[in-house]
Amino acid sequence: MIHTALLFKQAKNRFLPRRKRRRNQNFISADKWEFIEKGGCFMEFTKEANRIFAKDADGKLIAEVTFPDRSATTVDIDHTFVDDSLRGQGVAGQLMLAAVDAIRAQGKKAIATCPYAVGWFQKNPKFSDLLDSEISRNK
Fold this sequence. Notes:
Helix content: 25-40%
Strand content: 15-25%
């Protein structure tokens, strides 16, 4: 009975206009919501200073992005990792969205030295405002 009600609620939300759909739990950014609507699943990440990651039930690291400070106003997205068991499910993209949110919350700009992050910013130009153009020009 509970499952039927839950499925009905999800189906009901699915057919509402985009701006009227309910977002589950806490606030989910529009970019994450768009990803979920396309069929992706949303993972819960642990956030530390300049690091976002996920561990499985056994405590094994399964996903991670790091962005250490390069200066007082800039961070360097230098590493992304996703376990083989999660590849192809959009987890690395979710990590990047979480990193973008965290970097913006800090009021900083970013440079990307991780090959995945470089490619992600090229595929998602709407986030290019986060990139530090001064450093990018000097490379």
